[in-house]
C-alpha cells in the first residue's frame, strides 16, 4: 500500500463506506490504476468539475457500462503497447447487480483483463435510498417502505458472488470495510491475476442504513462476525472462506441497531437467522473453511 | 488500387481495414452483420491488426469504444435500428465526451411493427445526439466515407463522433464495382489520432466528469462548435482526398442539375440515384428538374440548400422518415434553412419508403408534378402511396 | 502525492475550459471543513502511531507526522470513525466552536 492518496477531497457523506473501499483499493493498486466509475455515489462525489478528486486516471462510465468501458480501456491501452496498468471499476450494488450485470457478465465471459469492484451499500443511495437487488430482506428503503402490509424489502439479497463465480471467473472474492487487511490482500491478489477479477465489498452507508457516521466500519465488521456477510474467495473452481466467525450469534442487536431494520419483528429476525444458518450449513459442507484468514 | 465487386457493407469493411482502427467493438444486427463478419475475417487472416471485442450488446459496443477511445486508440463500431436505439445513451455520452468514434449505421426501420428493411427513422430520430451524420449513396462512397470520417472526426477542431449511414439492403446488400485504394495512400492521407482527451500516465486525467449548472452550458456550447466546425474540415478533407484517390466529393450536399432548375427534389441516401434518373427524363421532356442530395444532416447544409433554392420555384423533400405528429425531420430542417435565407417558395414534404416499401420512378415523377402545380408559398406533407389510395 | 487545492478561478472564460471532458487529475477547488460539527483531536501522549485511524479514514485526511498522526482539517468531515477505531482512546471528538 502506498502513502499517496488517490481519492481525496471528495464530497461523499461523512463516514461513507463506499469512499473508504475506493480509497483503500487505489492505495493498494497505486498510480497505474485506471479507475472507471459509473453514474452513482462515487462518481457524483468525486468528479464535479472543477473539483476532481482522483489523483490517478479516472473516468465516469454510463450506469450500465462499467465493465464494457473497462474492457475498452484495457483493449485500447494494450493496443497502444502499454501493459503495466490495472483497469479497475468501482460500481455500486445497483450498478453491478441490476443495470450493469449484463456488461459484467459479458466481460467475464470474454475473460477481459479487468478488476471489477462492487462497493455494496445495499440500495440506490445516490438517488435517495431506493431498493436494488442487493438490498437485503426486511430493509426499509424509500421504495420498500415498512408498513402494516410489508415489512420493507420482501426479497433476499441477490447472490452476486456466486453468480459471478458460476461464469468460471479467474478470481472472485467478498470483502468488508470492517476487515481492511483482508480486503487489501484480495485487491492485491486480484491485481496479480490475468483475466477477469471480481471483488464484492460490503460498504455501509450511514445515511441509508440509519446508523451514525462513526459506525460504518464497525457495522461492516459486525456483519462478518455474526455470519451475515461471508468473507470468501473463489479461485480455480473452489470456494474458500476467508474469515470464519467464532459462532453464529442471535442477530437482534446487529439488526436492530440499524434504522432500516427498526420495524422488523422477532419472527422476521428469526427468519434472517435461519437463512444465515442454512447458508453456513451449506458452506461448511461444500466450501473450504480454514480458520484465521486468507494466506 | 484494385477493383472489387463489393456490397455496401463489404466496401465499408474494406475502408475500415485501410484505416486500421486499434479497437473494434461490435454486436451483430441485420442488415449490418456483413460488416462485422468481414472485419472478423480480416482480423483472423491477419490483414487487419485490430483488437476485435465481441461485446454482448450495442450499449456495450459503444461503451467499450468510448473506453478504448479514451486511451487515445482509434475505434470503430457498427450497428442498425434497434441496436442504435439501444445504444442511444452512449451516443450522447460519446459526443459530450468528444470521443471521435466512427460508427457505421445500416439504416433500418424501428419496431413496432418489427421490420428489418430500410428506412431512416433510426438515425434521424437521434439527430440531436451531437454526432456528425453522413448518408452514403453507393458502395464507393461508403468505402471513401470510412476513410474520410476518421480525418474529420479526429480533427482537433472537430473531436466529434461520426455516424456513416448506409441504406439497409438498398446499399448494405447491393453489389457494385468499387475501387479499393492502396493502403499507402490512406496512410498518406490520414494522420495518426492525437489527443489530450485521454488517459495519460505522465499527466493523469479525470475524464467524462460532471459539470453543474455554472459550467455545463460551456461544454455543450463547445460541443456544438465542434459539429459546426466539421463543415470546414469536411471540405478540407475532401480537397486533400481528391488528388490522392481520384474522387472529388462535394461537401455537405451534392447538387445534380440544380444550376438552372425550377423544381428541386431534396433527398438523402441511395434514392438519389433514381431521383437523378427521373430528373434526366424530365429534362428531356423540357421540365427543369434538379436533385439535391444532402450528404450530411449534421452539420446541416443550410447554405448549400439556400444557394440552390434561391433560383428555384419550389422544392420538395423526400425522406424515409416521419417525426410523428409533425412532419419529416429533414423537411423541418430544410424549411429552417429556407426561412433563415429569406426564401419564400413552396416546399413540400414526401414521406416514403417506411419499413422498406419501394419508392418507384412513378412516385418520383408524381413528386415533380406536384412541385409544378401552382402552390406558391405552400407547405404540405404527403405520404407516398397512402393519401392517394386512402 | 494527493489531490490538492488550487487557486480557484472566480471567473471562468471560454478559453479556460477544456475542449473535452478531460482535465487535470486531483484538481481541488473547495474544502470540506465546513461540513464538520465535531472535530477529531489527537492526544499525542496516548497515540502510538499504530495508523488504524489513517487506514480507516474514508477521506484519507489522517497522515503520519513524526511518531504520531495529524489531521488535514481542510478535508476532515468529522465522521468520527477514527475516534471509534482508536483502541487507545487517543482521538477525542470535540464540538466545533462555531
Task: Describe the protein's architecture and organization.
The complex is a heterotrimer of chains A (295), B (390) and C (98). With 295 residues, chain A is α/β, with parallel strands linked by helices. Chain A has one domain (17-289): 3-Layer(aba) Sandwich (Rossmann fold), CATH 3.40.50. Chain A is built from eleven helices and eleven strands. Chain A has a nine-stranded mixed beta sheet, with helices on both faces. A two-stranded antiparallel ribbon of chain A has the order 2-3. In chain A, helix 3 runs parallel beside helix 5. Chain A is globular, with a radius of gyration of 18 Å. Chain B folds into two domains: 2-245, Thiamin diphosphate (ThDP)-binding fold, Pyr/PP domains (Rossmann fold); 253-383, Rossmann fold (3-Layer(aba) Sandwich). Helix content of chain B is 40%, strand content 21%. Chain B is built from 13 helices and 17 strands. Chain B has helices at 8-19, 33-44, 58-69, 81-86, 88-96, 121-124, 139-154, 183-189, 213-245, 271-284, 302-309, 329-340, 361-372, and strands at residues 2-7, 23-26, 51-54, 75-80, 102-107, 132-135, 162-167, 175-180, 205-207, 210-211, 253-256, 263-267, 289-294, 296-298, 314-319, 346-351, 379-383. In chain B, the strands form three sheets. Chain B has a seven-stranded mixed beta sheet, with helices on both faces. In chain B, strands 11-13-12-15-16-17 form a six-stranded mixed beta sheet, with helices on both faces. In chain B, strand 12 (263-267), helix 10 (271-284) and strand 13 (289-294) form a beta-alpha-beta unit. The radius of gyration of chain B is 21 Å and the shape is globular. Chain C is α+β, with helices and mostly antiparallel strands and 98 residues long. Chain C is built from two helices and seven strands. Chain C has a domain at 46-98: Alpha-Beta Plaits (2-Layer Sandwich). The longest helix of chain C has 5 residues, at 52-56. Helix content of chain C is 10%, strand content 26%. Chain C has helices spanning 52-56, 81-85; strands at residues 4-5, 22-24, 27-28, 38-42, 62-65, 68-71, 91-95. In chain C, strand 5 (62-65) and strand 6 form a beta hairpin. Chains in contact: A-B, A-C, B-C. Strand 4 (58-61) of chain A pairs parallel with strand 9 of chain B.
Amino acid at each position: 500500500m502506498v502513502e499517496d492518496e488517490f481519492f481525496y477531497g471528495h464530497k461523499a457523506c461523512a463516514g461513507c463506506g463506499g469512499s473508504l473501499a475506493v480509497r483503500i483499493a487505489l492505495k493498494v493498486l497505486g498510480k497505474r490504476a485506471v479507475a472507471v466509475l459509473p453514474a452513482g455515489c462515487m462518481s457524483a462525489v468525486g468528479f464535479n468539475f472543477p473539483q476532481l478528486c482522483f489523483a490517478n486516471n479516472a473516468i465516469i462510465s454510463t450506469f450500465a457500462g462499467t465493465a464494457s468501458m473497462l474492457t475498452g480501456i484495457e483493449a485500447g491501452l494494450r493496443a497502444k503497447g502499454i501493459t503495466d496498468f490495472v483497469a479497475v471499476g468501482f460500481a455500486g450494488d445497483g450498478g453491478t447487480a441490476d443495470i450493469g450485470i449484463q456488461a459484467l457478465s459479458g466481460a467475464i465471459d470474454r475473460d477481459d483483463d479487468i478488476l471489477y469492484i462492487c462497493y455494496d451499500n445495499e440500495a440506490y443511495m445516490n438517488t435517495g435510498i431506493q431498493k436494488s437487488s442487493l438490498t437485503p430482506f426486511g430493509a426499509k428503503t424509500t421504495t420498500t417502505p415498512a408498513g402494516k402490509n410489508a415489512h420493507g424489502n420482501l426479497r433476499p439479497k441477490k447472490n452476486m458472488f456466486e453468480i459471478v463465480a458460476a461464469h468460471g471467473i479467474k478470481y472472485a472474492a467478498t470483502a468488508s470495510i470492517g476487515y481492511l487487511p483482508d480486503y487489501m490482500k484480495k485487491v492485491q491478489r486480484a491485481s496479480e491475476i490475468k483475466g477477469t477479477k471480481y471483488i464484492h465489498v460490503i460498504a455501509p452507508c450511514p445515511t441509508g442504513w440509519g446508523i451514525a457516521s462513526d459506525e460504518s466500519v464497525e457495522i461492516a465488521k459486525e456483519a462478518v462476525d455474526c455470519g451475515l456477510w461471508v468473507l470468501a474467495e473463489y479461485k480455480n473452481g473452489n470456494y474458500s472462506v476467508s474469515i470464519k466467525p467464532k459462532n453464529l450469534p442471535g442477530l437482534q442487536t446487529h439488526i436492530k441497531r440499524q434504522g432500516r431494520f427498526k420495524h422488523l419483528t422477532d419472527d422476521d429476525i428469526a427468519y434472517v437467522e435461519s437463512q444465515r444458518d442454512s447458508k453456513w450449513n451449506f458452506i461448511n459442507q461444500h466450501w473450504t473453511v480454514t480458520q484465521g484468514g486468507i494466506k | 488500387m484494385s477493383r472489387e465487386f463489393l456490397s455496401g457493407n463489404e466496401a465499408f469493411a474494406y475502408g475500415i481495414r485501410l484505416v486500421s482502427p486499434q479497437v473494434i467493438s461490435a454486436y451483430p444486427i441485420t442488415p449490418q452483420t456483413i460488416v462485422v463478419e468481414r472485419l472478423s475475417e480480416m482480423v483472423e487472416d491477419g490483414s487487419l491488426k485490430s483488437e476485435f471485442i465481441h461485446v454482448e450488446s450495442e450499449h456495450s459496443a459503444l461503451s467499450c469504444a468510448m473506453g478504448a477511445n479514451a486511451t487515445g486508440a482509434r475505434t470503430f463500431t457498427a450497428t442498425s435500428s434497434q441496436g442504435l436505439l439501444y445504444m442511444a445513451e452512449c451516443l450522447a455520452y460519446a459526443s459530450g465526451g468528444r470521443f471521435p468514434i466512427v460508427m457505421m449505421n445500416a439504416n433500418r426501420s424501428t419496431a413496432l411493427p418489427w421490420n428489418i428493411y430500410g428506412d431512416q427513422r433510426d438515425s434521424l430520430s437521434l439527430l440531436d445526439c451531437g454526432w456528425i451524420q453522413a448518408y452514403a449513396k453507393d458502395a464507393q462512397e461508403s468505402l471513401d466515407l470510412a476513410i474520410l470520417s476518421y480525418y474529420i472526426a479526429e480533427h482537433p477542431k472537430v473531436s466529434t463522433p461520426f455516424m456513416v449511414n448506409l441504406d439497409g439492403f438498398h446499399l448494405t446488400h447491393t453489389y457494385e464495382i468499387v475501387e479499393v485504394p492502396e493502403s499507402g495512400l490512406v496512410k498518406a492521407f490520414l494522420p495518426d489520432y492525437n489527443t489530450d482527451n485521454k488517459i495519460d500516465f505522465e499527466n493523469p486525467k479525470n475524464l467524462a466528469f460532471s459539470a453543474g449548472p455554472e459550467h455545463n452550458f460551456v461544454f455543450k456550447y463547445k460541443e456544438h462548435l465542434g459539429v459546426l466546425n466539421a463543415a470546414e474540415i469536411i471540405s478540407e478533407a475532401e480537397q486533400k482526398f481528391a488528388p490522392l484517390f481520384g474522387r472529388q466529393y462535394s461537401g455537405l450536399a451534392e447538387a445534380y442539375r440544380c444550376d438552372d432548375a425550377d423544381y428541386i427534389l431534396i433527398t438523402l441516401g441511395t434514392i438519389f440515384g433514381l431521383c437523378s434518373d427521373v430528373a434526366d427524363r424530365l429534362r428531356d421532356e423540357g421540365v427543369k428538374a434538379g436533385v439535391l442530395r444532402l450528404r450530411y444532416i449534421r452539420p446541416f447544409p443550410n447554405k448549400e440548400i439556400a444557394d440552390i433554392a434561391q433560383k428555384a420555384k419550389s422544392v420538395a423533400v423526400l425522406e424515409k422518415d416521419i417525426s410523428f405528429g409533425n412532419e419529416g425531420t429533414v423537411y423541418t430542417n430544410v424549411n429552417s434553412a429556407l426561412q433563415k435565407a429569406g426564401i419564400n417558395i413552396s416546399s413540400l414534404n414526401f414521406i416514403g419508403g417506411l419499413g422498406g416499401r419501394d419508392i418507384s420512378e412513378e412516385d418520383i415523377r408524381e413528386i415533380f408534378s406536384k412541385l409544378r402545380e401552382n402552390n406558391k408559398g405552400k407547405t404540405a406533407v404527403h405520404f407516398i402511396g397512402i393519401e392517394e389510395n386512402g | 502525492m494527493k489531490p490538492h487545492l488550487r487557486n480557484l478561478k472566480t471567473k471562468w472564460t471560454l478559453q479556460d475550459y477544456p475542449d473535452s471532458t478531460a482535465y487535470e487529475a486531483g484538481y481541488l477547488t473547495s474544502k470540506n471543513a465546513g461540513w464538520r460539527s465535531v472535530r477529531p483531536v489527537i492526544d499525542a501522549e496516548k497515540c502510538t502511531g499504530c495508523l488504524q485511524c489513517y487506514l480507516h479514514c474514508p477521506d484519507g485526511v489522517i497522515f503520519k507526522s513524526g511518531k504520531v498522526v495529524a489531521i488535514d482539517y481542510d478535508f476532515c468531515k468529522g465522521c468520527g470513525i477514527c475516534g471509534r477505531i482508536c483502541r487507545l482512546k487517543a482521538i477525542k471528538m470535540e464540538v466545533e466552536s462555531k
